[in-house]
Amino acid sequence: MTHTSAQVSYLDDGHTLRSWLLTTDHKRIAILYIVAITFFFFAGGFAAFLIRYNLISPKGLIGSAETYNRLFSMHGILMVWFFLVPAVPVTLGNFLAPLMLGARDLAFPRLNLLSWYLFMAAGVVALYAVVGGGVDTGWTFYTPLTSFYSQGHVVAAVAAIFIAGFSSIATGLNFIVSIHKLRAPGMTWYKMPVFLWSLYATSVILVLATPVLAMTLLLLVFERLFGIGVFDPAIGGDPLLFQHLFWFYSHPAVYVMILPGFGVISEIIPAFSRKELFGYKFVVWASIAIAVIGFLVWGHHMFVAGASLYSALVFSLLSYMVAVPSAIKVFNWIGTMHNGYIRFDAPMLYAIGFIGLFATGGLTGLFLAALAADVHLTQTYFVVAHFHYVMVGGMVSAYFAGLHFWWPKMTGRLYPEMWGRAGAIIIFVGFNLTFFPQFLLGYLGMPRRYFAYPQHFEALNLLSSGGALILAVGYLLPLGYLTWSLFYGARASANPWGATGLEWTTPSPPPTENFAVTPIVTKAPYQYRRAEAVER
Amino acid sequence: MNDAAAQEFQFGSAEHQRETAISGIWLFLASEALFFGPIFLAWIFARHADPTAFDAGSRQTELMIGLTNTALLIASSFAYSVGLGYIGFGSRRGMAIWLAIAWLLGAAFIGLKFGVEWQMDFKKGLFPGPAFAIHGPARNGAQLFFAFYFFATALHGLHLVVGLGLVAWIIFRAERYTAERHSPVHVVGLYWSFIDIIWLILFPLIYLTGRAS
């Protein structure tokens, strides 16, 4: 490779479609992923919007319970596997991991491109399942409904998730090996940015939990196609076994969704507080602890499914334990902000919103980890609200925070700050209006996944649907002004936020080879000084 | 085309690239182990629920073919290791010959398993379904056993077929490898041996546990 091309921006290194579709540059692959992920986010969001539209009236406005079942299944499948699981790792992670490591690319660039193609293939199969009529099983695919009774495109939907899983495994493997082998000279483990640590923890789950889901889904398809299988109690199988195996992946998977968000927030809070991250080692090991304990709590999804009381006790205790590292993180972020020189730019607004929403989502999770409370709350809107507070309030906020924070680095353009702030506030308000009423609905006993409900739940449902409208506006805003900024935004300097980290030492947008000279790391991350001059 | 022996620009040295490739395949194999894990778990779980019926199914399997196949696979991995040793000394010819032997042994496994054993199983009416040959109280459990049997051996066979493709690919590109630079040979070898390890767990589950009781 020649060094003469070192200063050509990765965006200018080839303008043909081929130069994008056959690229092995991690930065371009990240952009390819952003386009795909954005599509699936709005497709899944549209389904959610129709769900809330239906629930405006107690009788259901869509008029068919079957259609409603297919809508929430599509919403769940698209959002979980085609947005939340991949979102931060494949976009921000792909773009930033080599930059933060001081490397020129990930360890296996071709595998990285392959993972995108697998993801797109999975997306096409998923869309086929949706357009072909959808599935009515929910995103959890419980047997025996899926294996014997469901009329929908179960096999296609399951195939899509199976393929997407291998895309996840490829991405996770690439990150783990890259973090082990491609750190710049001087970058010891404790000099790594927390974002890399959280990607590492995420990747461990992706590599070790996803294959379990893959096999579980294969067993499910076998049972559906041949009518004989391990989940059928008539011949000595057990449907509970499916739930065990499914949640062995799917509970760690919720940490796949949220851990990268923790990483993003841990980068942003110090940058906008002009302070070193409080308790770096605690934040780092909290990520690892969450990844490890996350493997041991799956049973809390089955408290009322007939699992033994003693196993439920253990799972309950372990579930409480996850709260400890999560709380450590929240306290450390607040500790970082304490006495800081705080600037309320859009990424920081999202990050502060994240802390509040994630804390709410996390604390309500404790209600569900408690055996007695769970019997009352399980399968109600309380669970829906808890999950969305963590996943949408937490994860999606973190994704937007990161997208705004690194947007100048990725595109070389500044987004309009006032619009950014407005978007963050609208999303925060819309989100709470949508989902807080659902805590109340759940507590009052409204079950989830029903397309009609008793009259006395109408007011709270109306509030929730109204909030969804605001939330939709909030999500469409960034789509508009970020796209606008690609063409008309002011040019960004190498380091518009005055942030630390190797990614800010290279031009915006970075050259194809990332660094003209391999950087040498001598300092710990987050060496911020108060009121340092910040030029944008 | 990218030359396998060429150094990619994200690595500091050829050694660096080699170490990275090896750690990548080990991690992939960890993932594969968890891929097969649920079959073993579900298998043991289901047998525990109805051991007599499971064993009745197990006794209908072809022990001699299973035994021969086990020997074939182990010999194949041995041959591959010898080939890897040869390229370590820089002998492309020695490597190609021993990898070809490994390939043939692997192909013989496939032929015996799916060309002979499965056919015998089908003839005996052992594929689960209405025509299943075992009747009486053991019928359900034995069907479940054969559901596992066909599912697991098909999946293992699929891995082996992928392995055959990879070994052929290495033989086809033998000219590119030298004593210093041959990490693809090493990487494929690890995968090739991994397929054996899966079989070494499947073999007793299929053929032995039912006969021991």
Give an overview of the whole structure:
The complex is a heterodimer of chains A (536) and B (213). Chain A is mainly α and 536 residues long. Chain A has one domain: Cytochrome c oxidase-like, subunit I domain (Cytochrome C Oxidase, Chain A). Chain A is built from 16 helices and no strands. In chain B, helix 4 (92-123) runs antiparallel to helix 5. The longest helix of chain B is centred in the first third of the chain and has 36 residues, at 14-49.
Attribute tags:
heterodimer; A: 536 residues; mainly alpha; Cytochrome C Oxidase, Chain A; B: 213 residues; Four Helix Bundle (Hemerythrin (Met), subunit A); elongated
CATH class value of chain B: Mainly Alpha
CATH architect. name of chain B: Up-down Bundle
Rg of chain A, Å, rounded: 23 Å
The CATH superfamily label of chain A reads Cytochrome c oxidase-like, subunit I domain
Give the helix/strand layout:
The complex is a heterodimer of chains A (536) and B (213).
Chain A: H1 17-21, H2 26-54, H3 65-84, H4 87-101, H5 109-131, H6 145-149, H7 154-181, H8 194-226, H9 239-273, H10 280-293, H11 309-337, H12 346-369, H13 371-377, H14 381-411, H15 417-444, H16 458-488
Chain B: H1 14-49, H2 51-58, H3 63-88, H4 92-123, H5 139-172, H6 183-212
Helix pairs in contact in B: 1-2, 1-5, 1-6, 2-5, 2-6, 3-4, 3-6, 4-5, 5-6
Compact overview of the structure:
With 536 residues, chain A is an all-alpha fold. Chain A has 16 helices and no strands. In chain A, helix 8 (194-226) packs antiparallel against helix 9, helix 8 (194-226) packs parallel to helix 10 and helix 9 (239-273) packs antiparallel against helix 10 (280-293).
